[in-house]
Amino acid sequence: MTGYFPLPYEGEALYSVMARYSQRTGIKNHSDLSIMVFGKLSTRCNVLTANKIDAFLENTQLIRCYSADDIIYNNTAFYPITSFLDAAKQRQVYSKMRKSDRGSCITMLSGMNQLTTMKGTLKYCPTCLAEDLQKYGEGYWRTIHQVPGVNVCPTHRVELFDECPSCGEKHSIPQYGYRRLTSHCTCGNSLAHVEVKAYDAKHSISCQYCGGKYSIPMEGFRSRVYSIHCDCDQWVKGNMTPSRDQHEINYALNVNYIYQHRLLFDLDEINQRMFVRLQELGYIGTEVVQRQRLTDEFIQYYGEDYLKQMGAYPQEGFSNWIRRIFRNPSRYFMYHLLMLQYLYGSVEGYQTYQPQQMSLFDAA
Questions:
Q1: Element (H, E) at 134
Q2: What's the whole-number mean pLDDT along residues 172-188?
Q3: Could you give the maximum distance between any two Cα atoms of the chain, in Å?
Q4: Domain ranges of the chain
Q5: Is 307 left (phi over 0), alpha (psi -120 to 50) or beta?
């Protein structure tokens, strides 16, 4: 049992709390840390999940002010990695995180074993870090930034870094022990005060008659075609194809929406609603999904490079996850989220969408 343990910050990964504890106490030995905090030599928390939460709360005495739910829901990526599991599987993951010391079980149950995009590095937002240094005097790794596929900070809408912007030193995850987010790199340059790329989640439209400018938000709509009645009394129509940057920020915003609202989806309901939407979009003929056409247009919508970067490029044949997702739903949350974005624009768009209701962006 420990006599001192730092309180988690808002949205801080439990991994990061362990890193701060290690730095403050000077305990670097992985075995000593594991025994003191988890009560077992082989246990450690990874970037996204954690094991033996009950023992952790007892040994750190955080049980006085935190419950297992507080830690699992706020300081791990329980949401979104379990959001598209059936209720029984989610309960299994929850139970494993509280009591098990086998992280591999959590990985397999949540479908994270399908993941090919984790680079073994930690990501951070320079703007978040600058604010944290001013507010707390130290920085920390945020859970939402570590979620696979999230490359943009959903709060500040700027790029995330997994390396020093000055020298390129990677923020690699050590095999043993924990890496803390510091204010400066070993090269001496600041990690907070750097030039960052900003992302815009809106699509700009110009009227070809008067030059009037319009911004169409990406959030909440599946970008297909637009029809806008301009102030010059002309109709501005056309196709709207999101850029790669817009896909990046839209995905980050949707992951954050799931994380903040602790969403758990009913897979049967998702499938039923998706079939209705696919039918509306002309992907279903004689009650059969035109999977090849859906796959081709899905790739065209996102772009081959983006899907490959995400580890979600649909391969040919039986391994094509788009062909299987409606019959044998994948446990991997990213596939479901990308499909929801394709069909509805966003998670919120899925929740609020009314079938057969014509919107501004579906108008011809």
A1: helix 126-136
A2: 93
A3: 73
A4: 14-117, 264-352
A5: alpha
pTM of the full structure = 0.87
The predicted pLDDT at position 362 comes to 42
Angle between helices 68-75 and 53-60 (to 10 degrees): 110
233 or 165: which leads in pLDDT: 165
State how far the alpha carbon of 264 is from the alpha carbons of 76, 91, 92, 127, in Å: 15, 11, 14, 30
- Confidence check: pLDDT of 220 > 70: no
Compute the distance between CA of residue 162 and CA of residue 171 in angstroms, rounded to an integer.
Answer: 6
Return the number of other C-beta atoms located less than 10 Å from residue 117's C-beta.
Answer: 12
Paired with 340 in beta bridges are none
| H or E element that contains 314 | none
15-45 pLDDT per residue, tens: 999 999 999 999 888 888 888 898 887 677 8
Is the sign of the CA dihedral 65, 68, 74, 75 positive or negative? positive
Residues 6 or more apart whose CB falls under 8 angstroms from that of 257 comprise 263, 346, 347, 348
- Site of tokens 């020093």: 164
Preceding peptide of 80 cis, ω within 30°? yes
